[in-house]
Design brief:
By secondary structure, the chain is an alpha+beta fold. 45% of the residues lie in helices and 15% in strands. It is built from 5 helices and 5 strands, in the order βββββααααα. Helix 3 packs across helix 4 and helix 4 crosses helix 5.
Amino acid sequence: MFSVGDYVVYGSNGVCRITKVGPMDLPGVSKDKIYYTMTPCYIRDSSLFTPVDNDRVVIRPVMTKDEAENFVESIKDIDGITIKEEKRRELEYKEAVLSCDPEILVGIIKTIYERMAARIAEGKKVTSSDSKYFHIAEDSLYGELAISLGMEKDQVKDYIHEQFEAIGA
């Protein structure tokens, strides 16, 4: 169970901070059920509520600073994802994003980046689906790493590139 003040990754909402754990103070809501009240870190003036025992949406702690630093070092070794059926490409992107797994997010980013580069080289446009899921995956991954590493989200991409340059990758 999470505590007030904890940072968590909560499904497609990204990184949230737990602000309350307890019954909801709303009419018609059972006082027997315990909820997390969360504030998304990158969505202003918003609160989210989910039962503590919710098993339909991924909720997990953000990486620690050490875990994030080690993860960034491992990015070069993470492979892109394999799309088995072209017709299922967008569905596989969506499932991967909803997993909230940083390794899978890196796999999506690498896969879509290579696909976008190939399409541009062929004189084709980037598909809206590729563009959409590329940005969702980056936003989710960089949001978590920013909290873990104590930096602004827009600094994370440069931080990752600097780490690769430092090791000559």
